[in-house]
Design a protein that fits this description.
Layout: H1 4-15, H2 22-34, H3 38-43, H4 51-65, H5 70-74, E1 76-79, E2 82-85, H6 98-110, E3 116-120, H7 126-134, E4 139-144, H8 147-159, E5 166-170, E6 181-186, H9 207-210, H10 218-230, E7 231-240, H11 246-256, E8 261-266, E9 272-278
Parallel strand pairs: 3-4, 3-6, 4-5, 6-7
Antiparallel strand pairs: 1-2, 7-9, 8-9
This protein binds S-adenosylmethionine.
S-adenosylmethionine binds next to α7, β4 and α9.
Length: about 290
């Protein structure tokens, strides 16, 4: 019989060479597989590890040692307080993307009549689903170029009971629309192609979700060129960026939307992370 404490210690030692946070990774894995909290795992080293759980954890450790990221091994991850199913077709949602969600919620709270939104490059669906869950009158078109990612996003929307308000469409950026959007959220690939192979953090995640081409701005640039067709007067666009791209994306945004107010916001680590574009409301005819 193996105790939890012994096996946890073994696992931490095995992960030491492949992880920057072997303690946390092992605790998270054990907590998930045993259906307990991390605090419980630490407080019960004497607990007996059921044989089945022991075998499943050993298989997980092999995957982690092969450098499969922990969220893919677990098959799910948390974003904005919600649990999202993940596969290797979907980007692992990042905490810094919560800034985009918070800004979208600010805009929607200040403009309560706006309720038609798009999420471009939806991946696991985390942005659209977090927003639809928080704002019950909001409806979305959520697109991705990857069909396997869209299937995961749809499954997540069903789990969180918002599938009726989010239409998932496979598309390059956004399909043509009859009704322009009030809000467009875009977390598109933005890593410069030549930087991608050097990034440890990007190992194991889909290149389609990360590779932003030359200087990282090929897809965002194309998005901004087309965006004036998709957004309504008074609408808001939120674009997540890589930390070095603030000034360049802001100038592309100003070129696409000369009358809009554009800003670059920093994430909690102090890096440029989000470009916001707020369009003016159309003047009514008697204002002219
Ligand atoms: C950085 S990931 C973001 C995923 C998710 N929104 C998130 O925040 O975790 C970018 C996503 O955009 C998708 N994508 C890449 N190129 C695209 C394009 N031209 N049109 C639509 N989606 C695209 C990728 O498949 C990927 O799911």
């Amino acid at each position: 019989m193996t105790t939890l404490g012994e096996e946890l210690k073994h696992s931490i030692e095995s992960l030491d060479e492949v992880s920057d946070s072997p303690n946390l990774d092992a605790q998270t894995l054990f907590a998930d597989r045993m259906g307990k909290s991390k605090a419980w795992i630490l407080a019960h080293p004497e607990a007996e590890l059921p044989v089945k759980t022991h075998h499943s954890i050993q298989a997980d450790i092999i995957q982690l040692k092969n450098r499969v990221p922990l969220p893919y091994v677990l098959g799910h991850w948390e974003f904005y307080g919600l649990d999202f199913i993940l596969t290797q077709d979907t980007l692992i949602p990042r905490p810094e993307t919560e800034l985009l969600v918070e800004q979208a919620l600010n805009y929607l709270s200040q403009h309560p009549k706006k309720k038609w939104a798009a999420d471009v490059g939806t991946g696991s669906g985390c942005i659209a689903i977090a927003l639809a869950k928080t704002k019950p009158n909001l409806s979305f078109i959520a697109t991705d170029i990857s069909y396997p990612a869209l299937k995961v996003a749809h499954e997540n929307a069903s789990r969180h009971d918002v599938a009726k308000r989010i239409q998932f469409i496979q598309s390059d950026l956004l399909p043509p629309v009859n009704q322009p959007y009030d809000l467009i959220c875009a977390n598109l690939p933005y890593i410069p192609a030549d930087l991608l192979p050097t990034l440890k953090v990007a190992k194991g995640e889909p290149a389609l979700a990360l590779d932003g081409g030359l200087n990282g701005l090929e897809i965002i640039g194309r998005f901004l060129e087309s965006a004036p067709h998709w957004i309504s007067p008074g609408g808001c666009l939120l674009i997540e960026i890589e930390q070095s791209q603030g000034p360049l994306v802001q100038s592309l945004a100003r070129r696409a939307f000369p009358l809009a107010e554009t800003n670059v916001l920093k994430d909690l680590a102090g890096f440029d992370r989000l470009v916001t574009i707020q369009l003016p409301e159309k003047k009514s005819s008697n204002e002219d």
